[in-house]
C-alpha cells in the first residue's frame, strides 16, 4: 500500500460508495465494504479533489483542471486523507488488479467486508478465490434449496445442480425458489433460472438424473473438476445416496459432504484418501450404536430418521453451520466435519479411519492439490 500520494496515478472512488457532501469542508462516505460511515474534514480544495477523482484522469490532471496550484493545497493533509480513504477501501487506483469485474466487486461488497473480518485476510483475494471454485449440489428439495439460499450469494464461480424430479404442488410450502406456475417443470431448469436471476455472475450447469448404484457414467463425468459435492437428495434414501456418491467421489477424488437432515444430523466431510469416510462410520463400531435400541445394520439411518432421537432443532441453524463449513473448506481446506459428524442431539462425534475400509486404498499421493 502506498504511503505517499503518487500524482501520476489515477485514483477513483470505489463503486457502491455513497458520498454525502455536508459542507464545503466536510463529507462523509457510506461504505458497503466495511459497513461503516467515514467522515472527512479537510480544506475545501482538498475535498473538491476527492469529489472529482476519475479513472480517466491522473491526480495531477484533476488538480490542474480545478486550477489549483501547490500553494493552494495542504499536501500533508491531503496525503493523510488519501491514505485513510485507501486503507478503508473508499478509494483505489487503476493499478488495482482483480479477476472480479467492477460489477462483481459492487455485488459482493458486503461479502468482501465479512470475509476480511471473519478470517482477518484480504477480502478481495478471498472473494477471488471463491470465484475459482466449483461445487455440485445433489438434490433440489427442501434441504437443497435451503442450502442454495446461502450458497448463491457467496460468490462461488460455478454451481452444478443434479435432480431428477419435477416440481409438484406439495413442494411449494417448503421449497421457496419454486412458484405455482413452475409445477410440472424440472427442478434443475427452474433453479438454474432463479440462480441466474439472483446472481448473474455464477455459471450454472444442470443434470437431470436420479442417483442409483446402476450406470453412473453421466454422474462421474458431470462431477469431474468439482471442489466439493454436497448431497441433499433422499431418494432412494439419504444414506444410500451418500454411499453411491462416495463411490463416485473416490473415483474422481472429489471431497463431499451432506446437507443437514431435518432432525439436525450432519454427516462428515469426506476427503478421499485423507479422512475417514461414510463406510468407516457405518461399519460395526460401538461409537455409533444406539444403546437404547440395540445393534442394527443401519446405525446412520437411525441417527437421521428415528423420531424418538429428535430434539427441538432449528433447520436453519444446520444450514448456517454447513454453509460456514463449506466456505471454510473451499478457502482453507478446513472444517469441523473432517473426521466428525453431528448427531441429532447436536453432539459432535469423532469418526475413526478404519484400517480395513476401502477408503484406505486411496493414498494422499494420488490426490491432486
Plain-language structure description:
With 369 residues, the protein is an alpha/beta fold. The protein folds into three domains: 11-96, Alpha-Beta Complex (Outer Surface Protein A, domain 3); 98-129, no CATH class; 133-366, 3-Layer(aba) Sandwich (Rossmann fold). The chain is built from 13 helices and twelve strands. Helix 5 crosses helix 6 and helix 7 packs across helix 13. The longest helix is centred in the last third of the chain and has 18 residues, at 315-332. The radius of gyration is 26 Å and the shape is elongated. The chain starts with 10 loop residues before the first strand and ends in a 19-residue tail after the last strand.
Any key phrases for this structure?
single chain; 369 residues; alpha/beta; Outer Surface Protein A, domain 3; Rossmann fold; 3 domains; 3-stranded antiparallel β-sheet
Structural class computed from helices and strand pairing: alpha/beta
Helix coverage percent: 25-40%
Cα-based radius of gyration, to the nearest Å: 26 Å
CATH topology of the largest domain: Rossmann fold
Q: What average pLDDT do the residues reach?
A: 83
Q: Any idea what the shape is?
A: elongated
* Total number of domains: 3
